[in-house]
Every structure is written in C-alpha cells, then in structure tokens.
Design brief:
This protein is of the alpha/beta class. It has ten helices and 17 strands.
C-alpha cells in the first residue's frame, strides 16, 4: 500500500453533490481530494432536468455562461391514465445531459485546485483524527470526509426494504422537433419522463417496478400515448440501467462522514429536483465541514449542524415527492377528484413547490 497522503477534505464521489462540495471547499483555501470509482464522462440514469434552483448553483460553480445554450424547458405535461394535465413552469428550466454536466463539474473542480482521482474505488473509511480512507492501493488521510458515493456503493449499501423493487432506465433517442416541455407518462406504479436535450434528440428515463419491465421498449408498451410517440424513435445509445432504487429517511452522517447527494437520500425522479437536492446537500456538507476545519466547532457539532440544515431545507421535498408518487399511482377516481378540486394549473404549482428545496 502506498504512503499516506494528507488532505483537509476528502470527497468520495464526483457527481453533482461531490463536485459542489469539493469546489466550495477548495475555493475556501482547503486542500481537497475528490475521488470516484468510475471514469468521466459517462452516461448515467438521470432525467437530465435541471431546475431553476440548480441553475443558480451551477452559475456559481461553473460561471455565468455555462450551458446557456442548453434547451429551455418551459412547461410540464402529465399523461395520466385517461387524464392529461399541461401547465407552465413558474421559471424555465434547462435540459442538460449528465455526460456533459459531470464533465464540466470535474473540470471546474480541477480549475479550483481540487486534486481529482478517477478510477479510484473507496473500500472503507475509519473515523478518527485524521479520517482514514482506504482504496485498493492507497491509504488516504483527511481531516474530514464527505461521502457522495451514491445510492449504492461499498460505503452506502441500502437498508433492506420490503415491497416494490424499483429499477431505473435511460437512453437518448432521435425525435423530430421535440417540444420544450418535460413530459411524464404514468402507468400503474411506474412512470417514464421525456425531455428535449437537442434539436432532434430527447432524453428518456423511467422508474419502474422490476417485475413490470426490464427495458425502455417494455416501458413504452405500458402507455398507449408513449408507445405511439416512440414508434419512430431511433436510439442514440443503448439503454443504461440501474437497480437498487430505494426510498428511506435521510442519512446525513455515517462513521464520522458527512453524507450528501443520493447517498443521503433519493428523491423521486419525476419531481425534477434530484440534481438540485444533490447540489444543495453537497454545498451544505462542505459548509459544515469548513466550519469544523477552521476550528469553529468540533466534528460532532458540525455533523449535527449539517443534519439540522438538511432536514429543514431538503427533507420536506423528499417527503412530499413520496406522497405525490403514491397519489399519481392512486385509482382514477382519486386523481379525478383532485383535478376537480385543484385544477391543472394549481395542481402543477403544488407539484413544483412541494418538491423544491426550502429557502
């Protein structure tokens, strides 16, 4: 095993949460190491819907002009069984492929002075002063660690759950003149989202029970409108799949580490706020770590402060997204009653506002 290397902060996982943590800490003058088990850029299962809240943070991290040419998403269309709801978004969002977004964030981290090590899988972390981070070839030491390693890793295996086992599927397809909307097709317990990512290209991502479908083509057959729309699509790349999608209470601390992004909690993809919650949690974890590293508080106090901020700002969105998922899978008479009471536009505002980070 190689000689030990010291850092102020080690961030595990180089997605949006990890990059937000690393960039923030480096810009405060800390020695930061960012490690990821994979190689960037790569396609990831993601709706690629970047909300206005996310765009504000990305402007801070990447600069004013970043992704200014990405397609604007100005409305949402919900295709429920025997119901159609169309409403404008309060503020336009953008559709940005994760292949491009993750690469931009990695480059911004390197420009901020972060040491980046890809193809470096972390095997375990031992709490202490300093924290010890073990890879297959190295022992790394840091005064603090932020775990952004995602829903499933050697550090963040999920709690066993009963009930529905979900999988995620994603691919890009060629489509002539896609609309500037995010379109959500609901079928039973699952759903599929479609949004423009180019002049003739759409991102298609689905979350579906494992026993219901194993491919996007199988998902398309579950909704007549989606099947009809997809009949002439040509794939840009093959399906990307992920398993182990699970929902649980947020976990913001583990073995002395700050936990952020999907490693902390997973929000329903249809909410369109997954990237925003990842960025917010990564920033908050870095801010709490910085307070500790500057001697303003001990590690237990910093971890407790991060948890308090997380629960206040992000936990309501997680809870509300789960409630909406159950509502959208409810019998038709329940959905009809809600639409009759709220109306399409009010329902749309409720869905957007309820699943956003609190200010």
């Amino acid at each position: 095993m190689e000689a030990k290397t010291d850092y102020d902060l080690i961030v595990i996982g180089a997605g949006p949460a990890g990059c937000a943590s690393a960039i923030t800490a480096a810009r405060h003058g800390l020695r930061v190491l960012l490690v990821d088990k994979a190689k960037f850029p790569r396609h990831k299962v993601c709706g690629e819907f970047v909300s206005p809240e996310s765009l504000g943070i990305l402007t801070t991290l990447l600069g004013e002009s970043s992704f200014s040419s990405a397609p604007e998403i100005v409305s949402a269309r919900l295709f429920l069984p025997n119901r159609f709801v169309h409403f404008p978004l309060p503020t336009p969002a953008r559709s940005i492929p994760r292949f491009d977004l993750d690469q931009e964030l990695i480059q911004a981290a390197e420009a901020a002075g972060v040491s980046v090590q890809q193809l470096t899988a972390v095997k375990k972390v031992i709490a202490g002063e300093p924290m010890e981070v073990f890879t297959s070839t190295k022992l790394l030491r840091g005064r603090a660690v932020v775990n952004c390693s995602g829903r499933w890793s050697e550090l963040t295996s999920p709690v066993q759950q009963n009930g529905t086992k979900w999988i995620g599927l994603k691919a890009h397809f060629h489509e002539t003149a896609p609309p500037p909307s995010v379109d959500l097709y609901f079928f039973g317990k699952g759903y599929c989202g479609v949004s423009q990512v180019g002049d003739d290209r759409v991102n298609v991502s689905a979350m579906v029970p494992a026993e219901t479908a194993k491919s996007l083509s199988e998902c398309f057959a579950l909704h007549p409108g989606l099947w009809w729309r997809s009949r002439d699509w040509q794939p840009v790349f093959d399906d990307v799949a992920t398993a182990g999608l699970y929902f649980r209470e947020p976990r913001t601390e583990q073995d002395g580490m700050f936990v952020a992004g999907d490693a902390a909690a997973f929000i329903d993809p249809f909410s369109g706020d997954g990237i925003s919650l990842a960025l917010h949690s990564g920033l908050m974890a870095a801010e709490a770590a910085i307070e500790h590293l500057r001697g303003l508080c001990g590690l237990p106090e910093a971890l407790a402060c991060y948890r308090k901020r997380y629960l206040k700002k992000l936990a309501p969105a997680l809870r509300n997204a789960g409630r909406l998922r159950r509502l959208l899978a409810a019998p038709e008479w329940v959905q009809s009653g809600l639409l009759a009471i709220a109306g399409p536009n009010r329902l749309g505002r409720m869905m957007v506002n309820a699943t956003r980070a609190k200010h």
